[in-house]
Model the fold of this input.
Amino acid sequence: MEDYRNSITVLFVIIYMVLCIIIGLWAMKRTKNTEDFFMAGRKLGFFITAMAMFSSLMSGFGFVGGPGLIYRMGSSAFWMFMSVTMGFLIMGVLLGKRIRLFGEFTKSVSLPDLAAARYKNETTRLLMSIAIILGVIGYLGTQIMAMAIVLQSVINNVDWIPNISSMTSILISSSVLVFYCVTGGIIASVYTDVVQGTIMLVSAILIFFTALAAVDGGLSGMATTMFLDDPESIGSFGTLGMIGCLSWYFVFAVGVSGQPHLITKLMMTRNVSQNKQTVPLSMISYGISTLLIIGIGLAIRTLVLQGIHPSPAKADDVAALFLQSYAHPILAGVVIAGLFAAVMSTADAFLNIGVAAIVHDIPKAIGRTLFKDELYWSRLMTIILAVVAIIFALYSSKEMVALLGAFGFSTFAAAIVPTIAIGLNWKRATATAANVAMAVSLTLIFFLQLGNINIPYGIDKGAIAMLVSLVLFFSISFFSKPPKIDPYIDEIMDL
Done:
């Protein structure tokens, strides 16, 4: 019976990977230039944009790392995902109109393009490009790890398929990813988001109720079991504590407005008026999808405490173990295929913005034309960047997917929230302030992360970096001479 269940799951994964190849080939015919490759021609409707936004932010970070984090930390992890849901609303207020109008008037195909136009400073473009590349490598490593963990777990539970190593799993999933990204660019990503977003929404609800049914007493039974084992694990702030949880709220609620793979999608819409539908729909969709994370994480922790399920070897295995053991095989297959869809789409978005920074923005920042055929070099650089991310994923294999994803999230947030989210709303913001804030925040977050420095009271390292970045940005701008702003930028900022 178990082999039958796992065979069905493998079949769904194979079908999805074949579908990715087909979509990549279809999208390649629609990708004629770099604006198509990076901006999908600025022709997306509100529903496609909303699905692309929410599913790209959920991805392997949420679907694989989320249940593992709840399993390990209890209710503390709720703060991360609840904060992200609120972050969509903050992003809509700060950037909903302005980023689309700025993008159209300045003909920007990337955030560094936008930053350079706003501040009239090529150093700002260069630093923004560096911040994006560094964040992409960390965050993309999260997606690769998530795909590898799930694929290895699924294949190694089927008798008629030889067991594969972590390296083989990474190579298989990454090969499909790279083909999908190289051929179709961002078009391949956003047009699969409609299907995968719908799958995630329906699956999240079904899995949540499956998780409730797997534990006697449902949510009440989960809470009682966890309380008897460790009262803090099911309290308001969980095992992390109040200060740590509030630092997560700061990073993940405010930091959503600094996620380039998310906010650049607001630049791809047909018109500004779509944001009235796009932002609420993406926020609600993300909130619903967190039911899967919460249900699986709490269920496995409870079942392990009750002695019904063995302890997983790694917290990141929790999602795959639940789906293989407790979900209907067809539902498990659909959910895992949806997971791969989410991861592929998000990884495509990361590769897209990273490649844009390398091929399009850095050459502009240094005043050199390094790549005459940007579309060709964009595809070639996609392969190179993916290889670098694979190496980073292997180096960071001991980190939990959720925590590695949080590092990438924080890297983006500390550099981009002040420069873009605040800078497009505040006329006093200066190029010097933006440059100092980005340079210091990047240096600080990598020093804290690579130095493995622990902050007291569970305070998130990203919260420290983003706070320092914002303080520098506001202080330097306030005490500097107000910059001269082009009339059309001034008019946009007055809307």
